[in-house]
Amino acid sequence: MSKNRFLFNKYVLVMAVSGTLFAPLSVYGKDEGPVVEQLCASCHSLTNLERSAGYSQQDWQTLISYMVDAGADTALNKDISAYLAEHYPVNTKRESKVVSGDLKLSFKYWQVPTLGQRARDPVQGKNGIIWWVGQWGNILGRLDPQTGDMKEYTLPSGTYAHSVSLDKNQTPWFLGNKNGTVGYLDLKTEKFKVYKMPNKNARDPHTGVFDEAGIFWFTLQHSNMIGKLDPTTGDIQLATLPTKGSRPYGIKLDSNGSPWVSCNGSNCLVKVDKNTMELSEIKLPGAKTHTRRLAITPDDMVFYVNSGMGKLGRYNPKNGKITQWDNPSGENSHPYAIEYADKAIWFNESAKRPETLVRFDLSTETMQSWQIPSKEGVYSGLIRHMRMGNNGLIIHQTATNQLAEITWSK
């Protein structure tokens, strides 16, 4: 059971014991708002409501159904959605700017089984299977996109994985963001193997990537570290970033197998020597610059999302030149996920509603963007990671607990 569903059901249980489970919220008078907001705040910040683009009552009901099983026709569900529609109606304060172009996109969605789990960071193996983690539900999930069949595994207690990566054998490895672990699911026995961090200060493994030698590289955001795990020995090495509070986030490999890391807390990129783990910091322009994730092209150009300033950036390791382009929706668009695919850089504008997907054509250095559709009019997003799959981009929508594949054509 997910944290969200557990908290909601706990609230319903309390209400049932008090004999008011099916009483409308209006019986609470002035306390109506706090009751609704307490339910919402049990799993996420109330600023999500305050900053939302709003919905009609029907669409609020739909969004709630993606988060918890409140019962579509219960008085409780109707009163919650009515309150939200009145106080957080449809508005345009987070409206995105769309740049037209010739490319057309197609979206295929899958709804994960456990609600409220915050499904995220899906990755597709060469065998076609898509794996994801439900961070708040402590779940590792498996999807067969051909049949739609899904299976969810409960991770070891306290894991709350942030991401999942695949090794050369298609084995899913997870990063235990809350208990300082890295581990994998043995596909034959369906049992977990877990490695603990050798340093008590290495608390939050975040995002990882395997190199050609089978070494697993990963970031530890708030610990301000980068890790290296050798699966053949279980040995883990750690290196601390030179600038305090850099908060290493995304990680990718260049053509030589050297890891590059983006800094979510500082205006920097970091290159890791794959042999010595020596760290080289590259300072990026702008005090407000911080970079959630990065992508590396076949010619080793390092592209990054400047999440703090609403820009796409490129660092040229050959000459040290840095170039940045404004995002279509501006400075407060908060670009988040990024990937190289089909001779282009793809990224999202996570602060906009509907959330937008942007394609930067590498040959023309021009952008095209699309509002990302969601089921039944709900567009709360958001994409925190995207990776190229066998046929297209594999993304997720954490708020609605959905996975999706994006393909394109002229």
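(ticket continues) Second input and output from the same batch:
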Amino acid sequence: MATDNPSQPSRETSHRPVPSSQDGFPAGLWRWLARRNPPGPFQARAWRSPLRGPWLTSVFGLVLLIVLPVVIVSGLLSYAAYAPRFGQGNPVDVGWLRLPYFDWPTRPSWLYRLTQGLHVGLGLMLIPIVLAKLWSVVPKLFAWPPARSAAQLLERLSLVLLVGGILFEIATGVLNIQYDYLFGFSFYTAHFYGAWVFIGAFVTHVAFKLPHLIRALRSRSLRSELRTRLADTRPERPDPYGLVAPDPAPPTMSRRGALALVGGGAVLVGILTAGQTLGGVTRRFALLLPRGRDLGDGPNDFQINRTATAANINPASTAADWSLRLLGGPRPVTLTRTQLAAMTQHTATLPIACVEGWSSTQTWGGVRLRDLAQLAGVPHPASAKVMSLEKSGSFNQATLQSNQILHPDSLLALQVNQADLSLDHGYPARVIVPALPGVHNTKWVRSIEFRAT
């Protein structure tokens, strides 16, 4: 971006009109505050880039207006995929913010891979655009006096929620992707409520600013700006919002250069992250891989988000005397791994996708969950509670919906890629269900309780 150079004094302390008492505050109070500008960023001469103005700000704003709803909706859908009606959405009790309950689909099998991939991937790609948008409006954020009327005071408070909300969501989201359980608070709870704070501020901001955005975009031709060289770059006309510098410095970059820089940054982030969701040959370019970098060996060579050691799995509990308990029917049924392996086996090629955005497609082999439900004496289950050998942790159990149990590709997997599961991938047995969030594909299964109601 063009440099903000405060070294040369401004010919004006401000190019904003001095209001009268009709603006809501007495004119005398306004003049008294205006004469007492704090130093540094509150001075108009601190912001001298000739690129700033309503048009450039509105270009960045238009991109955010188009893409942010996709990030928001995909995030809310991913929350719904956890089936909060079973008490396993995080947070659970959200009051009037509760989303309508519905059965999360099992088709297509890559649905959760898509929603969470979009949420994380687009969210990361928006970071350069968000930062550019904040750069373009920074003089307004430091406007002095901060408010001239009660209405303007409310507007500025909404900006605090808007800017603070999106920065909080970006910061917590990026840290959660890269680090395992870094926070001293629940990431899921904070991210959920932070999202709603931002959504409210975003909708309010759009309602007030959409006419200004449309007017500003019409003030200049995008095609013309993309053809304008650095030598021909001129500041926008003075505006009532305080974005155009009153004493602009010579440009060091054209507007097309600024758009290329920001757009190129977003594309680069996309290239460095998309492989974690798309997989295949693109994965080698995913240098910004999330946590879950641990890999297994041979046929089990794919991402492990939580190892058996991290889950405190006692190797003795997975030894030859391990058995699976099927509950919920007339009487409990106990099956050894040998007995499970002797049952009719099925294979399914399914992706496993996690909240951090990574996913991986493997071929799984095992016993259909609906066959186990039949064996347990609950042929038409309404739900099933799967319990892990893991003693603690947020995801040592999961409740499955009826459609997830009865889907022909829903398995209690014993093998992956024609080899036994490794301990880190859930040996002796794990659940794998189409379109289910990765953490609910429970590993180290010890029991399944099928429920008729």
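Agent notes: The domain at 298-451 is CATH 3.90.420.10 (Sulfite Oxidase; Chain A, domain 2). The first helix runs from residue 27 to 34. Closing as not reproducible unless the customer responds.
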